[in-house]
Amino acid sequence: MLRFYSLFSIKSVIGLFAAMLALSACNDAAEPVAQPSAPVLEVVSPEPEHHSTSSSEFAARLPLDAPVIMAATEANGPPFEFLDKQGKIIGFDIDIIHAIASDQGIRVNVINTKWDTIFVGLDGNEYDIVFGGMGTTPERQAKYVLTDSYVESPSRIVVLEDSPIKQLSDLNGKNIGVTLGYDATADLKEHKITATQQESDSIYAQVKDLVSGKTDAMIADGLVAAYHINHIPDQKFRFIDFANVTIPNVVMASHNKELVEKLNAGLANIKANGTYDVIYTKWFGESAKK
Questions:
Q1: Strands 175-179 and 217-221
Q2: Are residues 177 and 273 in the same domain?
Q3: 49: which residues sit within 8 A by CB, 6+ positions away?
Q4: What's the CA gap between 151 and 232, in Å, rounded?
Q5: Staple 69 to which of 128, 133, 150, 174, CB 3.0 to 4.6 Å?
Q6: Which pTM value belongs to this model?
Q7: Are residues 94 and 81 in contact, defined by beta-carbon separation less than 8 angstroms?
Q8: How far apart are CA 203 and CA 187, in angstroms?
């Protein structure tokens, strides 16, 4: 059974809080502060000017008395779920879960929580569903009800478009960027590649090293890399398939098979009507599909 929550009391509190903030701003006119210059490779928020695929737009299509489900995620994994400058939870997963639920006439209240407590909340019926980097495992399949996979992201090689590296064998003797803590030796050896590895503390830093010429190529999660390079102007990249094994990402519910069936139906519908592709391209760009 889906839960119902009143939206009117929440709106009243939000309206009062907004009015207080506006009054405070009028009484406290501060001198403008000079902003530091933007970094060379600034990653721009991918929120488009129109919000035809945003979570708020999907929610706006529903009646106020639509059933509401409580969904939990940890919003620190861009581009899938993270906080924008205003503290709003955005990301590919956020748009997808709202699109799926909206197709089924359901509102979603997304709660940002810690990963180490997310399953405790699900087990205690605090949340109806959890999502965000939720891969399928035998243990999870035995304990929870899982939806169909809504995205998969294999590791890929990224190079600049004009790079002489055209295939995996061209990586021999090259300097390859990897994320801190990831040793690609075994994976490279499987493809009979001998190369130098250079660690970076994030995929964004890997992209910076690639553009600056510190590395010849990089190995990274394909969709996270696509998100970053899709928002770097005046620079084009190419992908080379590297790992064929992927872990499907799913939405998990505790015992509510009826809800999961609705979510699966919604996922199938948004894939059929093109909504899924629009959201996918919004966050990852056309290059991620190749």
A1: parallel
A2: no
A3: none
A4: 23
A5: 128
A6: 0.76
A7: yes
A8: 18
